[in-house]
Amino acid sequence: MTRMIAIAAAAVLVAALAAHYFLSFGSGGEDRFAQCREGKIGGGAKIGGPFTLVDENGETVTDEDVIDQPTLLYFGYTFCPDVCPLDMSRNIEAVEVLEERGRMVKPVFISIDPDRDTPEMLTDFTDNLHPRLLGLTGSSEQVRAASQAYRTYYQKQEPAEGDEDYYLVDHSTFTYLALPEIGFVEFFRRDIGPDRMADRVECFLDAM
């Protein structure tokens, strides 16, 4: 049942992303990023928006603080056994490829498990991946609001009896590219490699 809910939520997310494209770029206005998009999708909702979270230093930050340069956002959790580490490693590789090309892109990891992902836990996680990786957490309400802004899905699984501290969290796995003063412009699925992701991000940066 949980897996079916996750699949349904992913379908809703794709529809919302399609809707954003239609409203932002398919209503007759010129899309400056058209050449950077790999597929044409159409539909109707907004992706991205204001959020308030807590960074790994315990400081309260807003979306304007976080997206102060081209940014790759990923929603996951530090206890994730496989998907999140692989996705974040791919994102970090793409960021490093871009840096070699003289392009600075900020990698950001937003936890959808605020009960366990304290600022200290995020510091350990991000320091092991990249010195510029920013980890964000917050209250359950703050995390939910950020997730809803980006139309992501997550659902905590029920822990085994007697082992309440160990549980998995089903979640969507898109990475989002956001630009200062523009906001969300693109999303990347899990099957894209780091070099291809870097190429596509660079295209957006060239078109800014």
TrEMBL record:
Disulfide bonds join C80-C84. It comes from the Bacteria. Keywords: Copper, Disulfide bond, Metal-binding. Pfam families: SCO1-SenC. GO terms for molecular function: metal ion binding. Gene3D superfamilies: Glutaredoxin (3.40.30.10). PANTHER family: ELECTRON TRANSPORT PROTIN SCO1/SENC FAMILY MEMBER, LINALOOL DEHYDRATASE_ISOMERASE DOMAIN-CONTAINING PROTEIN. Belongs to the SCO1/2 family. This is SCO1/SenC. It comes from Roseovarius halotolerans.
